[in-house]
Design brief:
Layout lengths: L1 E5 L2 H4 L8 H13 L7 E6 L11 E6 L15 E7 L5 H15 L7 E3 L4 E2 L5 H10 L1 H8 L17 H20 L7 E6 L5 H17 L3 H4 E7 L2 H10 L7 E5 L5 H4 L7 E7 L9 E5 L2 E12 H10 L7 H19 L7 H14 L1 E8 L7 E3 L2 E2 L4 H4 L6 E3 L2 H10 L3 E11 L1 E2 L13 E3 L2 E3 L2 E2 H10 L2 E7 L9 E7 L2
Parallel strand pairs: 1-2, 2-4, 3-13, 7-8, 7-10, 8-9, 10-17, 18-21
Antiparallel strand pairs: 3-4, 5-12, 6-12, 11-12, 11-16, 12-13, 14-15, 17-23, 19-20, 22-23
Helix pairs in contact: 2-3, 6-7, 11-13, 12-13, 15-16
Bound molecules: S-adenosylmethionine.
């Protein structure tokens, strides 16, 4: 039996340490008393810092057999992982939870939970439908909570509005443009692209500062500037557009998918001097993989409600629990306004549909199981990016569980071709830059209000950039201390 504690040093010792011993004792007793083969049992303990997340305090996961040989009975010799949240688990209830989970997990169907979908890789989970809906119907959510989305971001604010950071970027651009101009190599049109604009605070901070510096330095760059704002939420784009209305002549807003920017922005190929992306990669779909005993597994997930949550939710909308998978699917397809129109017997007003949406999000959990990933080279990280690129990363540090960051990888690879040969992509986000970080902290998924957050596999993005001839560097965000946010910069190698 293996017990793993994946918490940071200051959670395990020192003044902020938690008392893990009673939790471990209780887990150990419950495991030892279970009928499971202890040599095939792992207990992993995370400190889940996100108050809202997709797990119960104790979860039991099936690890599917690695080698399925002829005559091998897959029901025999199963392996299991018990996952404990060190922040929420109560020693006195762990034992009962583990016993109950084994009783249910071993049965064909778990009677205590209502699945909303079939098993699938994390990037295909229905949680991404919720995530997209949040951005598309943001105003309804914000009206209901009375809070803006920024208050849920790391540190309660977005670095997007940081004027110092904008100034630094702009002065670098001016220097580059002065240089190119002196060699008569500066194009007439000066393009800057921002992907995932939110309320437009970054665009406003950038454009205000740009105009001010342009005047101060006596340059004619503002006149030539085209600031493109891309987002998949028309609602968010409208907010951003209003925020920069005083720069309207220099701004275009485009509905686009961050995963495929070249689809909409083909005309921009090799032309963007700056692509700016903040707090978006951590919001894009991802798979997770896990290495156990040197073998690789894919984490498959399934969105569920607990039976008791399903009963309460169903009662609030005058439905039966077994109707919920269909109602949730329609909510994600139609959004709360149309849902209230087509199902008035369940949602007399849009407010009722929004209340259901919020309650469903809160109740949403992800069950997990581990399925062997035997041939890494057949796994696709992103279009034209094969799984082999992961091998040196996942094998660098013994057994571990990590994010693949498929969405971030897809977006990054499809954005690089837009850069001018001297252009730069800058991204503020939660990056893992050393795989060891996966062993000493929980990196997601967590819930920020109605959206999903996962740290981003910076090692993988570096590898993708390097293969395409780009240097990729990471630095602490220079203009705010104490934040986990890093700045990733990618530029073509000279
Ligand atoms: C957390 S907000 C960040 C907003 C802003 N950049 C900031 O830092 O405050 C994420 C933004 O990314 C957008 N977004 C998320 N996934 C996207 C996708 N696949 N395509 C385009 N935009 C996306 C959302 O609509 C939202 O505007």
């Amino acid at each position: 039996m293996l017990i793993e504690l994946r918490a940071s040093d200051d959670r395990l010792r020192g003044p902020k340490a938690l008392d893990a011993a009673p939790i471990l004792t209780s887990a150990y007793k419950a495991a030892a008393e279970s009928p499971q083969d202890l040599s095939r049992l792992r207990v992993v303990c995370d400190f889940i810092q996100y108050r809202q997340n997709f797990r119960d305090a104790v979860e039991v996961r099936r690890v599917e057999p690695w080698a399925i040989e002829p005559g091998f009975d897959a029901t025999d010799g199963q392996s299991w992982e018990i996952a404990i949240d060190l922040r929420r688990a109560k020693p006195e209830t762990i034992e009962a939870s583990i016993k109950r989970s084994f009783a249910n997990g071993a049965a064909a169907a778990d009677e205590t939970r209502l699945p909303l979908e079939d098993w699938r890789p994390g990037s295909k989970s229905l949680i991404w439908g919720f995530n997209g809906l949040y951005w598309k119907a943001l105003s309804l959510w914000e009206q209901a909570t009375g809070k803006g989305y920024e208050s849920a971001l790391p540190g309660g604010q977005s670095d997007a509005r940081n004027v110092e950071a904008a100034r630094e970027l702009i002065l670098d651009l001016f220097e580059l443009w002065d240089n190119l101009a002196s060699r008569r190599a500066l194009p007439e049109e000066l393009y800057v692209l921002e992907i995932g604009v939110g309320n437009g605070n970054q665009a406003a901070a950038f454009l205000d500062e740009f105009r001010r510096l342009n005047r101060e330095k006596g340059r004619g760059y503002y006149r030539r500037l085209h600031y493109l704002m891309g987002d998949y939420s028309p609602h968010v784009l409208e907010l951003a557009r209003k925020n920069v209305a005083h720069h309207a002549e220099h701004v275009s807003s485009l509905v686009l998918d961050a995963l495929r920017p070249t689809e909409t922005l083909g005309f921009l190929r090799y032309k963007a001097f700056l692509v700016y992306i903040s707090n978006v990669y951590d919001n894009l779909p991802t798979d997770e993989i896990v290495r156990i005993g040197g073998h690789l597994f894919q984490v498959q997930t399934r969105a569920v409600f607990s039976r008791s949550a399903a009963e309460s939710l169903a009662a609030t909308i005058n439905a039966r629990p077994e109707n919920l998978p269909e109602v949730v699917a329609r909510l994600l397809r139609l959004g709360p306004e149309l849902l209230a129109e087509v199902l008035p017997e369940h949602f007399p007003s849009v407010g009722d549909a929004v209340a259901f949406w919020r309650a469903a999000w809160e109740a949403l959990r992800l069950e997990e199981r581990y399925v062997p990933l035997i041939e890494l080279d057949t796994y696709e990280i992103a279009p034209d990016i094969g799984g082999e690129l992961l091998r040196p990363i996942v094998e660098a540090n013994g057994d571990l569980r990590m994010h693949v960051s498929n969405g971030a990888a897809t977006s990054f690879a499809d954005t690089l071709p837009l850069l001018h040969p001297h252009g730069v992509l800058q991204c503020h986000d939660l990056f893992v830059t050393d795989v060891h970080q996966y062993a000493n902290g929980f990196r997601g998924p967590g819930k920020y209000d109605g959206s999903v957050v996962n740290w981003v596999n910076g090692r993988l993005l570096s590898a993708i950039g390097n293969r395409r001839g780009f240097d990729v560097t990471f630095a602490a965000f220079a203009h705010r201390t104490g934040a986990n946010v890093l700045t990733m910069t990618a530029r073509a190698r000279d």
